[in-house]
């Protein structure tokens, strides 16, 4: 069912639509939330609170073409608010770097890799950890979730050009570090 139609049914109080929205997105939301914190309970609470809030306020919600984007950006704000402080209101200008966002490879990806790929993956993982939190998040949204820059900008609450710049600067840093590493490998120094 198209997102706009499903969202309208949900807003009209259709519990089946709520269930469908939840079932379609809960795994993605949990996985995304775990990128901000290792606290499973916090992520689960934020997801539960998010769905309770949107159900309670469904009649006041606007239209959306992408339920996924709406839920991701809402969950992101909720986790950052709860992580930084229960009593302090989230200020996107001052608290933007005060959260943790981790990028990690799945065990399946590590097993499938041969020795060279495994070495490359470890190097990439190390390089990803050197990126800023915002760069890691932008890379995750762009390449792990396949989102467009306008969608990334909405989720991260930044403008379109900032989203492009974050991804570009992250890729530039990764490329620079990988080129140096590849030169060392090819010259036999590593």
TrEMBL record:
> Gene3D superfamilies from the entry?
1.10.1740.10, Winged helix-like DNA-binding domain superfamily/Winged helix DNA-binding domain (1.10.10.10)
The biological processes this protein is annotated with in GO are: DNA-templated transcription initiation
Question: Organism, per UniProt?
Answer: Microscilla marina ATCC 23134
Keyword Transcription regulation assigned: yes
Q: Which InterPro entries match?
A: RNA_pol_sigma-70-like, RNA_pol_sigma-70_dom, RNA_pol_sigma70_r2, RNA_pol_sigma70_r4_t2, RNA_pol_sigma_r2, RNA_pol_sigma_r3/r4-like, WH-like_DNA-bd_sf
Keyword line? Sigma factor, Transcription, Transcription regulation
Protein name, UniProt field? RNA polymerase ECF-type sigma factor
Per the record, the similarity remark reads: Belongs to the sigma-70 factor family. ECF subfamily.
Task: Fetch the PANTHER family from UniProt.
Answer: RNA POLYMERASE ECF-TYPE SIGMA FACTO, RNA POLYMERASE SIGMA-70 FACTOR ECF SUBFAMILY
User: Where is each RNA polymerase sigma factor 70 region 4 type domain found?
Assistant: 123-174
Q: Where is the RNA polymerase sigma-70 region domain?
A: 21-84
Which Gene Ontology MF annotations are present?
Answer: DNA binding; sigma factor activity
């Amino acid at each position: 069912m198209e997102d706009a139609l499903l969202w309208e049914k949900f807003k009209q109080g259709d519990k089946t639509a709520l269930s469908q929205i939840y079932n379609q997105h809960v795994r993605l939301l949990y996985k995304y939330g775990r990128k901000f914190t290792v606290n499973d309970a916090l992520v689960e609470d934020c997801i539960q609170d998010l769905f309770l809030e949107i159900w309670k306020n469904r009649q006041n919600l606007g239209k959306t073409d992408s339920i996924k984007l709406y839920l991701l950006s809402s969950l992101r704000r909720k986790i950052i608010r709860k992580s930084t402080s229960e009593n302090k209101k989230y200020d996107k200008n001052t608290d933007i770097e005060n959260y943790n966002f981790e990028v990690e490879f799945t065990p399946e990806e590590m097993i499938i890799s041969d020795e060279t790929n495994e070495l490359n993956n470890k190097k990439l993982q190390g390089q990803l950890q050197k990126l800023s939190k915002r760069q890691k998040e932008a890379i995750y949204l762009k390449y792990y979730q396949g989102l467009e820059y306008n969608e990334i900008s909405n989720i991260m609450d930044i403008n379109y050009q900032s989203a492009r710049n974050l991804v570009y600067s992250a890729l530039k840093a990764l490329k620079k570090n990988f080129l140096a590493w590849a030169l060392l490998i090819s010259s036999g120094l590593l």
